[in-house]
Known about the structure:
The chain contains seven helices and three strands. It has 241 residues and is mostly helical. The protein has one domain. It has a three-stranded antiparallel beta sheet with strand order 1-2-3. The longest helix has 30 residues, at 48-77. The chain is globular.
Amino acid sequence: MEIRGLAFLPVTWTLWGLWGLYVLVILTVISGHNHKPFISDTGIQPPESVVYTIVFMVLSILGPGVAFLQYKFMLHRSEPAEKSFVIGQRVLFVIGWIIAIGTSVNAIYSVKNNPLAHRIGAGMGFVGTAIHNVCQAGLLYKTSYSSRLMCHIRLAAALGTIVILVLFAVGMGSFYCELCTGRCAEIFYLPVLVSEYVGFCGLTLHQLTSYTDFQSLTLTVSRKGVTISLREKTEDPENPP
């Protein structure tokens, strides 16, 4: 069996993450549990807590698959003599698995039952994905099938997401350390809330910028096992080889 074009996997990962977040927020608001919830707040009480676990557990399963495809694509497009480049890809692949572990921990432990484990898992997921996206965007300048403009957009989006997440981390840190309370907390609550959602959406949508690269991969299942190969891009995208 042969599957030509594996872009459906990152697309599925992105759509699942965005749709899952939308459902979680709607359930939390409709149930009256929180009218302006942070993402972690949507996993505190049932029924949305059950959906929260399912959404992020599925993401933790799809994540390594996407990371593996990225790893294979970069290896196929690099020269064997480029040892530093290959090592960098292996490091990013490991980071992809760290992200998956953090996402699963975040899904299992809610901020109410085990806030420390939840925040560590969420931090591994957010920070790891941000680092992975920036490094991958930089390396793809050399190997991507995407246009130069798309490479610029990909890197700019990854860097912009990091800035937003830093603002979110600073805001949340000031809340936890009680550096911003009372009227100060009321003023900055909404900007910090928005920065978290924008950061999450930015990390999730980033995968779509590599659509062309994933579409060039082919998965073959035979008696010898599973093989992921790279098919050469043609000038006519309507007639792939």
